[in-house]
């Protein structure tokens, strides 16, 4: 796999659009590649921000999260929340590189990914191409953040290995590879977390990616998530007093 971080100009809220940034930053996009775009850039372009001077962060988090743990449970002033069926601190809200704003997640990350995907296919005249919108999140019991995918388009996000055999002929019964998150982790590592000014990355040489010619269906999107009752960590997640917005 080859990853090339792409530098852009400084992006502030309401000053440009995502497709305009892509067109100016990328002279071409090769076939069989995936473009990673940070969710912050998408949100700034789409105006998914609120002014810090006019909003309390606690209220914004509780309004944006689908579920959150009460403030008394928060560690280091960070809320543990669920949004769009993703476990994420502070509902994905960020203050860095936002120039006086709280940057929220895009209102509809999937629609944003599909819009960028259609633009790329038409503007660069490519057939096989994918898009991921990324963010960063910590993992339990480990310091540091890694990239995650909050939406994708143009390829299969899960490679199902069930029924295949290992080196010794043992049939795999549960193994599925999360391609979208794996790509996001690699891309975000190269894009950086501070002042690198590289909110886009081009990923090439991807033999494990299965490209598709249509956006994912609702069934495909649903199949990439696990219901809480079936999740390996479900008994932990269900044992705490989650609250939903409005409670």
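^ structure tokens above, recovered residues below v
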């Amino acid at each position: 796999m080859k990853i090339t971080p792409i530098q852009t100009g400084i992006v502030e809220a309401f000053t440009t659009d995502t497709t305009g940034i892509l067109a100016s930053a990328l002279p071409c996009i090769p076939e069989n590649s995936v473009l990673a775009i940070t969710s912050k850039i998408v949100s700034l372009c789409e105006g998914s921000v609120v002014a810090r001077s006019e909003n309390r962060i606690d209220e914004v988090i509780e309004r944006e999260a689908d579920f959150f743990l009460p403030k008394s449970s928060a560690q280091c002033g960070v809320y543990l929340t669920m949004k769009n069926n993703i476990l994420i601190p502070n509902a994905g809200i960020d203050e860095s590189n936002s120039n006086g704003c709280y940057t929220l997640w895009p209102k509809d990350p999937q629609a944003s990914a599909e819009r960028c995907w259609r633009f790329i296919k038409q503007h660069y005249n490519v057939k096989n191409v994918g898009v991921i919108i990324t963010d960063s999140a910590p993992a339990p019991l480990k310091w540091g953040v890694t990239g995650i995918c909050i939406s994708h388009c143009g390829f299969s996000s899960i490679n199902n290995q069930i029924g295949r055999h290992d080196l010794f002929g043992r049939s795999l019964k549960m193994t599925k590879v999360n391609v979208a998150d794996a790509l996001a982790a690699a891309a975000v590592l190269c894009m950086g977390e501070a002042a690198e000014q590289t909110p886009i990355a081009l990923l090439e040489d991807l033999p494990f990616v299965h490209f598709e010619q249509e956006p994912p269906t609702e069934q495909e999107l649903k199949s990439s998530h696990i219901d809480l009752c079936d999740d390996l960590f479900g008994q932990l997640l269900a044992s705490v007093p989650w609250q939903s917005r409005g409670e």
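DSSP finds seven helices and 13 strands in the chain.
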